[in-house]
Amino acid sequence: MMEMEYMREIPNSQMDRRPRKRPRISTWETPQSSKAQSGLYSGQEVGNITSFGPTRVHLEHPSHFVKGLNVHKGSPPWRDDDKDGHYIFELGENLTPRYKILKKIGEGTFGQVLECWDRELREVVAIKIVRSIKKYRDAAMIEIEVLEQLGRHNRNANGCVQIRNWFDYRNHICIVFEMLGPSLFDFLRKNNYRSFPVDLVREIGRQLLECVAFMHDLRLVHTDLKPENILFISSEYVKIPDNKGTMREGKRLPKSCAIKVIDFGSTAHGTQVHNYIVSTRHYRAPEVILGLGWSYPCDLWSVGCILAELCSGEALFQTHENLEHLAMMERVLGPLPDHLLRRADSRHAEKYIRRGRLNWPEGATSRESIKAVLKLPRLQNLVMQHVDHSAGDLIDLLQGLLHYDPTLRMTAREALRHPFLTRNRYRF
Known about the structure:
Layout: H1 13-16, E1 27-28, E2 94-95, E3 99-108, E4 111-118, E5 123-130, H2 134-153, E6 163-169, E7 172-178, H3 184-190, H4 198-217, E8 220-221, E9 230-232, E10 237-240, E11 251-254, E12 259-261, E13 268-269, H5 286-289, H6 297-312, H7 322-333, H8 338-343, H9 346-349, E14 353-354, E15 357-358, H10 367-374, H11 379-386, H12 391-401, H13 412-416
Parallel strand pairs: 1-6
Antiparallel strand pairs: 2-3, 3-4, 4-5, 5-7, 6-7, 8-13, 9-12, 10-11, 14-15
């Protein structure tokens, strides 16, 4: 996960599960065969803010290291990784003879992302370099498997980022993507967390749900949808003057609203109900928190949280603790249904459910926690504060996506037929 300005909880349990059948590994100076790791690619900053199948990998020739002979095409001297298993590099040197490192454009728990020049295709690419630690290598191999599956079923992958190449280099799984633009989170941050226009929210929501529907049709659950994992394809934007007519504090708007979803290292098969913890905290569904098991509907809850965040500029549930999180849900969406509370695993939820109801505010850890919950508006009021038209349709869509009961929550295909999403497409 990327380290953002407001912290987001990183789920670890996903990294501990066994990898499924792995694709064949191609090696680059690898001391041992590998499994792999997960990640997330974050685009460059807004401005020209910072595009994501496999190709053949050529092994290095010893002549690349002979003094005076093709030195510019060789790899750098072997270096030890840092204490956390991150690859150590210098700008301008090679990542295999094919790729020249231009700059670092992202870093997170999984490793780092470098902007590189592809000498073979003569274009700039983004390469995710995974830490040389088993659980991250395992998750990366899961991501490669999912990316290749998505690519096999649709050339454009319905809004899913496409893998171009991957290789194992000095015990680091490296995944090559086309260069994309900034993430939705980075765009919001550069806009000082000001909301997106409702028409832009509509178009992003439509594309995001098309991607989710495509994955669910393939029986795949993303499990980690969030603004950091949704990237604009283009880095270009225009600036709109503020209310005073000045450009300095004006709002940025993307020239193109086309997006792609990234980070498939936590993707799971939806053919069964799972019980381990998934999703970054702010986008985690109630059935995950309550230990009720989860499947496809957890992705739709995340989509609802994302669309609400794009409308307001701030995360819907800014918390890092289960009881406070559930209390925030009740404040924004109304009481949790009795039948879900009764079904909650008593061992899992005993700290925040008492006598069939949420143990709030009695169980609050502090007065500040109670205040943080009380300051939240109802969902309807939140939307109407920021949306000047289509508010009713958007509220209705969000209520369907944020339904507490996963069996009654909208599916991606149902959401795509909602009136809010069937209007005219976004035009800048």
